[in-house]
Amino acid sequence: MSGRSTHRAPVRLPAGWGHISREFLLPAPEIVAPRLLGKLLARKTTDGWLAGRIVELEAYLGPHITTTPDPAAHSFRGITDRNRVMFGEPGHSYVYFIYGAHFCFNITCEPEGFAGCILVRALEPILGRDLMAANRDISNKNNVSDRDLTSGPGRLCQALDITRPEHNGLNLLSTSSPLQLRDDGFPAPAVEITTRIGIRHAAELPLRFSIAGHPCVSRRTNLRPRRNFAV
Question: Where are the coiled-coil regions (predicted)?
């Protein structure tokens, strides 16, 4: 029997992963969303950090937008106990439970009171892939694809073990937060823009943004990607 320990040191965040400023998240969600593609969502656990690269998002407009109403947004009918964090300062997590089965993770944007929000729909696993598979109760972790691991709002929350009771309302820009947004200098990608998925209201709005051609995007489309998305 070998005397070598099987204990693994906790995974740490790379030193080169920088922070995202509050100002970065002040514009409207349809402007912030494509800027967030390629950024990192990191989650601290007792076993170290998990992290994934953001490859797909959907923007949801605040109720102050009267020219293009967005009844699909949770903020559409005003502030409630459920959506209160959306009306606070930008850079916080809004987590909700859907269909009695899944959590969904969102990032607040725009100034306090405006309630812009961005749903993260898919990640590319970067740190802690084995633990993500364990969180999703996937035993054959070596044969599961990255897409099957963290593609889709419910899957990525399960993989990172994000829940509303533990993670709703967190400051994603704080170094002491267990849930953070980070930037490793990933170059601006080609962006594909489509309509949002799985909603009945305002379904025609082109507010879904993804890294063009990325294998972890939750649903393929035939739309032409836009490069260097203008903001």
Answer: none
